[in-house]
Amino acid sequence: MPELRRGPIRDQWVIIAPERAKRPSDYKSSASGDPSSQAPANCPFCPGNESMTPPTIAEAPDGKGSWRVRVIPNKFPALQTYDELGRAAVHGMFDRMNGVGDHEVVIETPDHDLELPDLDIEQLKIIVDMYVERLRQLMARPASRYVLLFKNHGREAGASLLHPHAQIIATPIVPLEVRTQLNTARTYYERKERCLFCDVMLGELEARHRIVDDRDDFVVWTPYASRFPFELLIVPRKHAHDFTLISDEDRYGLARTLKRTLTRLRTLLGDVPYNFVLQTAPNPIPRPGKPGYWTTLQYDYHWRLEIIPRLTKVAGFEWGTGFYINPMPPEQAAQYLRETPDDPL
Question: Does 153 participate in catalysis according to the annotation?
């Protein structure tokens, strides 16, 4: 059974999930995998193979007796259901709690060989709808302090199956990385009474050096302090702290922006492995002893989607210092991407 542990030196929670050790792909190099196991006939995410996965949680039907998007529990979950958190001290200096949470897989299309840039806007809109619905459902659970949507595309980015899919994990704590950004945003708002992310976006729009796209009420740019080559941010132009509140019109806008952005990346770099991560507001449910926790989110936070191509390796220097070495200036990356055709819509 999974559990969460925190040591006193890094002050960072870690998920210990022994069930995931059952995945042979975690301990093989990518060259040792069997390509035939990724064929549609053997793919658990393809239509007709539903018996190979846990039961469906939610789906968008295709009107013909099958589905267009399907959500299932992860077969090897990082977190799972417990009756209680089970907070405890271990040897006086360590903290632990049960690995409470949810781990879901969003199968984004029945087509085994089509990636997000290949899909039409209606299919992408249905995918965005499902992202919203699942995050909304998971956020309604009191134990879900934070819900993270992410996608691993390609083996080097952590995908164990090639069929297009994303994942959602709900955790009983707000992760340290997220908490740091939340505190930074709140401090900035307390000082200036403006959203930090809105101010950064306005600065980028004025400078234009790192802007890649500015349409459909979304702005795409390469961050000033990009950690990785061709790192990208997709940010709604209108201030919005909670992804689950996105309007129907903006869901279409996000679908079109995703298609254009991922098409540009693939056209310029080939089928590059990448991760995308949705950064949205944590669950603002009142917490015992912390009645004011995240009560200003609607004013100071701003949701966004980070896209990180996996073109460089994180090695000893990065792990030891927290510094990243990026050989591609974001201004140059943005220029290359601007000059790359996107998909005509």
Answer: no
Is 3 part of any domain?
no
153, 165, 241, 302: the catalytic one is 165
Q: Is residue 10 part of a domain?
A: no
Give 160-181 pLDDT, tens digit per residue.
Answer: 899 999 999 999 889 989 989 9
Q: Which domain does 246 fall in, by range?
A: 34-75+101-338
Give the pTM: 0.89
Which run of H or E residues covers position 48?
A: none
Biggest distance spanned by C-alpha atoms of the chain = 61
Return all residues near 289 (Cβ < 8 A) that are at least 6 apart: none
Instruction: Quote the pLDDT of residue 332.
Output: 93
| HSE-CB of 116 using CA atoms within 13 angstroms | 32
CATH value at residue 135: 3.30.428.10
Query: Is 8 inside any structural domain?
Result: no
Q: How far is CA 185 from CA 161, 189, 198, 262, 300, in A?
A: 36, 6, 11, 28, 6
